[in-house]
Write a structure and sequence with these properties.
Elements lengths: L24 E6 L3 E6 L4 E6 L4 E5 L9
Antiparallel strand pairs: 1-2, 2-3, 3-4
């Protein structure tokens, strides 16, 4: 039973707007300050705060050293 594994469940609705639309999410990583959604469809990581508000999108790929 799920109650044997967890004490509580919290639902966090992630903000959706023009910048935060996801195509093909491969995984969601929840850390102490942020929620990271790895979107394989856009080759990007979308960052949300713990209340679900969109913070940033990491999507730039480098072409050379240190990029």
């Amino acid at each position: 039973m799920l109650s044997d594994l967890v004490d509580s469940i919290e639902y966090i609705k992630l903000e959706t707007n023009e910048e935060s639309i996801m195509v093909r999410v491969g995984e969601v990583i929840i850390k102490s300050q942020y929620i990271y959604a790895v979107d394989y469809g856009q080759s990007a990581v979308l960052v949300f705060d713990k209340k679900g508000k969109f913070v940033s999108k990491l999507a730039k790929l480098g072409d050379g050293p240190d990029e």
